[in-house]
Amino acid sequence: MTRIVVVSAGLSVPSSTRMLADMLGEATTRAVQARGAEVEVDHVELRALAHELTDNLLTGFAKPALQAAIDQVRRADAVIAVTPVFSASYSGLFKTFFDVLQPGLLDAKPVLIAATAGTARHSLVLEHALRPLFAYLHAVVVPTGVFAATDDFAGGPELPKRVDRAATELAALLAVSGGAPAAPTSQRRLVEDEFESPTSFDELLKRASEGPPEF
Amino acid sequence: MGMQFGIFTVGDVTTDPTTGRTPTEHERIKATVEIAKHAEEVGLDVFATGEHHNPPFIASNPTATLAYIGAQTENIILSTSTTLITTTDPVLIAEDYAKIQHLTDGRVDLMMGRGNTGPVYPWFGKDIRQGINLAIENYALLRRLWSEDVVDWSGRFRTPLQGYTSTPRPLDGVAPFVWHGSIRSPEIAEQAAYYGDGFFHNHIFWPASHTKQMVQLYRQRFEHYEHGTADQAIVGLGGQFFMRPNSQDAVDEFRPYFDNAPVYGHGPSLEDFTEATPLTVGSPQQVIERTLSFREYVGDYQRQLFLIDHAGLPLKTVLEQLDLYGEILPTLRAEFEKLRKPGVPDAPTHASLVAAAGGAKDATVYADGDAATGSSDRDLSDPEVAKVLEGEL
Q: How many CB atoms are located within 10 Å of the residue B129 CB?
């Protein structure tokens, strides 16, 4: 079972960000199924977690609903991240979610980036804001990002075409056809990994003394 | 002694939000001593102080504070919350706490912590990214300094030692008991388990799920390293309460302190935070019930410390909190004792450690009189010194 989590940061209802998130989720389902694999898509809407995200910034820990969302992302095989454009970049709410993830949580995870805005003039936000963010987080970013301006929702073939293309690329990165994963698998050890299989003390002691003197 | 109860402080100098008044360092230092002495008066077993090296704290030099309190108390165990094993030279820790052991007749133990204040590391010539490695290596050396009379040692984080004897030797030949504290680093639970030392979770400001996970891992690894069954591992917990006979009074009085507290202030509401973390604000009965519930997720444990003097609470209020703590203490002791499973060990004390070691033995390392004391590095008859003074070297 391939697990995809769609993280979206739209604020209004209905939200064009959520609409784009739905399109990407459905297209990815089709693309993964076309490769003969089962897929499960879950949505995380950050609006409902806004208070808990702010609390997390201040207290350093996530309350249950936010923790559940973070766990979903941690366990996901791939993430679709969709933000509205605010002041020439991703929204603060969107960034906050990725700020509170522990380092390494997105290591080697395929991520499809997408954004919405009022006009097409914002389209490069994908390249100057989202792609560097996820590169920093060591995610594997799908080559095609999807930008949708309000006009794109008026119909026409252009947006669905880009959505399908991005979804196909994401499915290919997942290598769900049974071959070796296309994405690199080297990952930082998360605190959950450490609880699951603790590093033995002998190893900790060895690690501590490795490296040049620091005095 | 079954379970130990006490308090721990971090020594913050915080403005009282209800009056706008901030105590001076002097007032806060003296208040800390008052609090410790009153803790003994109301029957508590442990007073622990933190260690910080920056404003707004007065918690530098914990050893002077503990020795000073030790001189004015009879029974209370003096401990740390925490001793910075990362940035403090283990050679100094070995000397300082062995000395306090002698001065207080064994009323001292320590809790090791890494410290989370980034800039402190470089001030002491260390790198926070090496935090775990420093904790592992420094503690390995500290143990040897206490257990071996003469130590040859070399490592990564301090200059080597050749034929070094740490003085004084531990009282009765038994090192102080050590707890290892960590909120979310499984490596530290592993370290505590490996040595069969105690593990302490601060259990404040964080959800109980963190505590449960860490204690579970520690217990499991304690058994793995064959120090006993998981139930026999030595566990300590922090906690935080504010009590008044009437619970609504407690909430009303504590709220401004909560809302403006340095750590969690201006964030979640008091109600949210008491639900999400072990903080209890209410009547003595509520504090008893909440405290008894801790064992449901960590098992039977040996030490319970509460934080009661932070966020600008005035000394008078803190002393009143201690009075209330003293009033519920007999109930807490009796109820925990009733619930405790058979076979769970008592909290360790100097006496129990001495007994386990087969009795007290003097560990003094005697040496011949030395030729160094009283000589001067400016002794002109020393040809090396003369050369320096004449500018040749």
A: 10
Within-domain flag for A29: yes
Cβ of residue B266 closer than 8 Å to a chain A Cβ: yes
- The verdict on residue B389 lying in a domain is no
* Residue B244 φ then ψ, to 5°: -140, 155
Instruction: Decide if B206 and A215 are in contact by the 8 Å CB cutoff.
Output: no
**Which is nearest to B113 in space by CA: B32, B207, B14, B10?**
B10
- Partners of A208 on chain B (C-beta within 8 Å) are 132-134, 136-137, 140, 156
Domain membership of residue A214 (yes or no) is no
Domain CATH for A76: 3.40.50.360
Domain count, chain A: 1
**Count of structural domains, chain B:** 1
pLDDT over 50 (residue A177)? no
Cα–Cα distance, A148 to A155 (Å, whole number): 11
Q: Pick from B332, B127, B360: which is nearest to B243 by CA?
A: B332
Write out pLDDT tens, residues A62-118: 999 999 999 999 999 999 999 999 999 999 999 999 999 999 999 999 999 999 999
- As beta bridge partners, residue A117 has A149
Provide the domain limits for residue A39.
2-209
The CATH number that applies at residue B32 is: 3.20.20.30
ipTM over 0.85: yes
What domain range includes position B111?
A: 4-365
In A, residues 60-79, which contact B (CB 8 Å cutoff)?
Answer: 60-61, 63
Inside any domain, residue B375: no
pTM for the whole structure: 0.92
Cβ of residue B133 closer than 8 Å to a chain A Cβ: yes
CA dist., res. B36 & res. B33, Å (int)? 5
Residue B208 resides in a domain: yes
Q: Which two tokens stand for residue A64?
A: 């249950």
